[in-house]
Design a protein that fits this description.
Elements: E1 4-8, H1 31-44, E2 47-51, H2 59-65, E3 70-75, E4 85-89, H3 95-98, E5 102-107, H4 109-113, H5 116-123, E6 128-133, H6 144-163, E7 169-170, H7 174-178, E8 191-194, E9 200-201, H8 204-209, E10 216-217, E11 221-222, H9 250-257, H10 265-286, H11 306-312
Parallel strand pairs: 1-2, 1-8, 2-3, 3-4, 4-5, 5-6, 6-7
Antiparallel strand pairs: 8-9, 10-11
Helix pairs in contact: 1-2, 5-6, 6-10
Bound molecules: iron/sulfur cluster (SF4).
Iron/sulfur cluster binds near residues 238, 248, 271 and 306.
């Protein structure tokens, strides 16, 4: 059942997830389409997230957006003080811009590994940090050890912060400690996107890949073909997995395996390295005192890709 609507205001709106924004020419959603999208969200009782470009919107757009409860996803360089989520590309940070916010940091793996200290500094300032690795498809078995070491370094920083009474969240590590069941991106299932052309998409990535790959429009409504394929209960590998924090990105799935409900080896291995690092972090914090007493221990496992485990059976 749908619960969320993402409104991408402009072709140049910031990315908050795996996809890149390939367009540099502005194309702002028509004001009437924005009004109609909000009307759909009101009728369907959807929670709205608005994704902003790097320029200031005309006042009439701001006025229309204010007609509905929503959260703002904005580039940090132009974010208003009230923006709930801020995104940044690059490494030129002013800590004050992040204070107490939810921040999205998107970068290729190699850059992240080379900036462990900056990521730790960021963690100390934000309420929550979502790290999005933008080149999952290039992850190889040779990267596993370096990724694990980087995660362990961030785990040490998180442990230091937690022991000192702070509790920032990091999607790659703390989500798995807190969860008791799968909690993934609901694109195509619980979440739908409205693009600047007034059409509906599974998520913004599907729009940027191919504007004709829509699932309806504001004139005719939402029409997701084979919508069961976007649900966890129709994802035969994921529904048995316990990397509960995994983003389970259906766009990456389709890009890498040609099936929206079949994950790639790379996505699974990375998620399991994070799961295992979360296991170590949880045990380490607990060795210092009571921590999340109602959450079960994360079990030790002997695989990194659930698909291989299934094949063994
Ligand atoms: S790790 Fe793989 S199997 Fe597990 S939820 Fe993520 S994509 Fe699905």
């Amino acid at each position: 059942m749908l619960q969320y609507m993402i409104i991408v205001l402009d072709d140049t709106s910031t990315s908050f997830c795996h996809y890149d924004v390939p367009r540099c020419e502005r194309r702002l959603i028509a004001l009437d389409d924005l009004r109609r999208a909000i009307r759909v969200a009101m009728i369907e009782n959807l929670t709205v997230q608005v994704v902003y470009p790097y320029y200031d919107l005309p006042q009439e757009y701001k006025d229309v957006i204010e007609t509905i409860d929503h959260s703002d996803i904005m580039p940090v360089s132009t974010a208003t003080p009230g923006a709930q989520v801020v995104t940044v590309d690059g490494w030129q940070w002013k800590a004050v811009l992040w204070k107490g916010r939810v921040a999205v940091l998107r970068a290729p793996l190699e850059e992240l590994l080379g900036h462990a200290q900056q990521v730790s500094d960021l963690l100390a300032n934000v309420q929550r940090l979502n790290v999005v690795i933008t080149d999952v498809e290039r992850f190889t078995d040779a990267d596993q050890e370096r990724y694990s070491i980087w995660l362990a370094q961030l785990g040490e920083e998180l442990e230091r912060l937690y022991v000192n009474g702070k509790s920032p969240q990091l999607n790659l590590l703390t989500d798995r400690m807190m969860l008791t069941a799968m909690n993934n991106c609901g694109a195509g299932d619980t979440c739908i996107t409205v693009a600047p052309n007034g059409r509906f998409y599974i998520c913004p990535a599907f729009y940027y890949d191919d504007p004709d790959d829509c699932v309806g429009d504001l004139d005719h409504g939402i029409a997701v073909a084979n919508k069961q394929l976007y649900r966890l209960d129709h994802a035969p590998i994921c529904r048995r997995c316990d990397a509960w924090h995994c983003r389970r990105c259906v766009w990456l799935n389709r890009r890498m395996t040609l099936e929206v409900n079949t994950p790639s080896h790379e996505q699974c291995v990375m998620a399991h390295l994070e799961r295992n690092a979360a296991r170590n972090l949880l045990a380490s914090i607990r060795s210092k005192g009571t921590f999340l007493p109602d959450k079960p221990e994360i079990k030790e496992i002997d695989y990194l890709d659930p698909f291989e485990k299934l094949q063994e059976k």
